[in-house]
Amino acid sequence: MEKSNFSFDKRVESLGLNKSDKVLIAYSGGGDSTFLLMQALNYFYDGNIYVAYVDYHDSEYTPEEEKIVLDFIRDKNIQFFRKDVYLSWKESNFEARARDIRYKFFKDIVLKENLKGVLVAHHANDDAETYLFQKSRGSITDELGLKSISILYGISVYRPLLPIKKSDIIKYLNDNGIIYFDDPTNKNWNRSRDRLRMSVLSSDDNVDKTLEQRNRDSIKNDEEIEKANEFLNKNRYEFKEYRKLSINIQRRFLYKAIQILIGKEDNDMVVSTMNICFEFLKSNRTESLKLNDELYLYKDKDEFYFGSPIELNDSYSFEIDRPGIYDFNSIHLDLSNPSLYKINKFPVFIKAVKKGDMISTDLECKDGWLCMKKHGVPTYLRGFYPALYNKEGNIIYLPFYGDDKFYINVSRIYPKQKVLISLIYFLFL
User: Fold this and answer.
1) DSSP labels, 386-423
2) What residues of the chain score a pLDDT lower than 50?
3) pTM here?
4) Least buried of 119, 124, 131, 369, by fewest C-beta within 10 Å?
5) b/e map 388-397, b = 16+ CB within 10 Å
6) Cα–Cα dist 157/149, whole Å
7) Number of C-beta neighbours around residue 107 at 10 A
């Protein structure tokens, strides 16, 4: 390994591992995982290596792969775990399904055997390939390329081979006469990653140049993350501040917020939801967007926020027979000075505004529903927005959105996750 100056021992120790750790090796019989397993066997103490092999039965080459795997681990002090599934690499979602199957398999072994985590054989070419793939898709991610350590499916995933290129791995195996399985199905021009691998990343120089560009882009990426986090940690998400952000930072803020709210496991779901939220926030309409059964994105004239579903209750009616300060569930009214509301006589009533309800005082408009719309009361609040009514059933006072003496109570709370993102939950019980 003189050419690459790669030291497996130093590398795994930089990742926080040591010889006495018990680890799982993801092994396929291919050159990369064969190299990884050999290096691990030379470093970790005997008996501390566990191997996971998934046989997808995905091509006519499966028997050859299987023989190489079984021959390699024979007579070695290895605890071997095998999973057989039946998938075809020709399926459009093969990679996603295969990934889900194998990582759930890894998780079961790691937890059952109380292992430190799983080591996978991603190398420098894979790192460059991932970066280019992210770039081509316009992906929003915390880190460009691959991470040395990740948490996937609730377990630690280590990538000790990221500093070494594919060519150095193959040279080492060939120089030492080590047999490995070279899967011909990895050379498919119909798959975007394979095209990248066989064209742009076909030479070491291109791999190096790609990673150099990744490192430069990472500086900009980190700057965008910092600005997005600054906005994320605000108590209020105001449109005037949000729209000052660049489009990239807006999308990154939403990406992070969705990660926090719905979880990081399904990144495709996070990206899809982020894009939906981004388009939703472009319009000037005050409305709500359902993200799932437990989460909505709410938008009013000046702010937006994530919150739980609003429980609509438009049938309430509260009678008030004297001045004072009143709290009815989520509705607050300071009626200490009735003259502010031009009240001549009691009783008065708090009710939800209905279409067609008229205003009897000298407000600028006479229709209660249209008046709410004019003053920016969000669409999702109008069906049960409170107003003050006289005995005759006419509106005598309509609180504009944000009134500090007559308002619908809004509580700001933090989610269960240990993050600094404020959620707004409407409490209409």
Assistant:
1) EEEE-TTS-EEE-PPTT-SSEEE-EEEE--SSSS---E
2) 1-2, 189-190, 410-429
3) 0.66
4) 369
5) bbbeeeebbb
6) 6
7) 16
